[in-house]
Design goal:
Pathway: Cofactor biosynthesis; coenzyme A biosynthesis
Subunit structure: Homodimer.
Number of domains: 1
CATH superfamily: Phosphopantoate/pantothenate synthetase
Order of helices and strands: HHHEHHEHEEEEHEHEHHH
Distance between the termini: 32 Å
Family: Belongs to the archaeal phosphopantothenate synthetase family.
CATH class: Alpha Beta
Number of strands: 8
Strand content: 5-15%
CATH architecture: 3-Layer(aba) Sandwich
Helix content: 40-55%
Strand order of the largest sheet: 3-2-1-6-7-8
EC number: 6.3.2.36
Largest sheet: 6 strands, parallel
Radius of gyration: 18 Å
CATH topology: Rossmann fold
Number of helices: 11
Enzyme class: ligase
């Protein structure tokens, strides 16, 4: 196989190949865990099922997420190893646009990895980054992911946690927080627990969110609240499953044709 630098942009798998390479580089830099490669493979398989595009229900969820972030009194963006490898600039840009801190939280935690991710985010222009000196615990978690920071996730009212695991998502919701996730599996525990679930690839979802925050920042608070009141996450998840079924049906029909 040729080096990725030699793969033309016209290659049908170009975007996917570049995403994989970013994760491999993340592992080499000590930012992403090897287990993150497995998670990426699972997500990529699910992305096939929606045609590797942002669907209508995903866009509806992204619009709701933008409204929630704009209305939040203390939003925080959580960053794990895969997010740090795939969308670090976008995470910093979104945080800066809404005046939110970032907090590093990784499943297979080592202090060295946390520091590397925090330093990466600071180097990209992040204002405040928590996570390398946690001083609180999320109740109900018997794992290193229970570590949190006061002023960060522990005190947040809205937490944006792309590529999250189910038990931590449930624990955050039980704390009374509104949780926004990016999860390509609409049937996962994370997807079903979250306040707003974006069934989209994180490399598409983050640029979309940044654009939506820019677009919606001028709307008055009442309008944003009406948008959120009309949002139904379970209905969006059902429609996301329907999008997968529709795409598969179309693909099989093409084979028959």
């Amino acid at each position: 196989m040729p080096a990725l630098s030699e793969v033309p942009r016209t290659h049908p798998r170009y975007a996917s190949l570049m995403t994989r390479e970013k994760l491999v580089e993340g592992v080499g830099r000590g930012i992403t865990g090897l287990n993150g490669l497995i998670a990426q493979g699972r997500g990529e398989a699910l992305d096939y099922l929606i045609g590797e595009v942002t669907t209508a229900p995903a866009m509806e969820a992204e619009r709701a997420a933008a409204a929630m972030l704009l209305l939040a009194e203390g939003p925080v963006l959580s960053v794990n190893g895969n997010a740090a490898a795939l969308v670090p600039k976008e995470m910093v840009a979104l945080a800066n646009k809404i005046g939110a801190p970032l907090e590093v939280n990784i499943f297979y935690r080592t202090e060295e990895r946390v520091k590397k991710i925090a330093d990466l985010l600071r180097g990209l222009g992040a204002g405040t980054v928590y996570g390398d000196e946690p001083d609180a615990q999320i109740p109900g978690l018997d794992h290193a992911r229970a570590k949190a920071a006061r002023g960060g996730i522990y005190d947040a009212d809205v937490v944006f946690v792309p590529l999250e695991d189910g038990d931590r998502c449930e624990a955050l919701v039980k704390m009374g927080k509104r949780v926004i996730t990016v999860d390509l599996n609409p049937l996962s525990r994370t997807a079903r627990t979250s306040t707003v679930t974006i069934v989209d690839n994180v490399v598409r979802a983050l640029p979309n969110l940044i654009s939506l925050v820019d677009e919606m920042a001028g709307q008055d608070e009442a309008e944003l609240r009406r948008l959120l009141e009309g949002y139904d996450n379970r209905a969006v998840l059902r429609r996301s499953v329907e999008e997968m079924i529709s795409h598969l049906t179309h693909q099989f029909s093409a084979l028959d044709g």
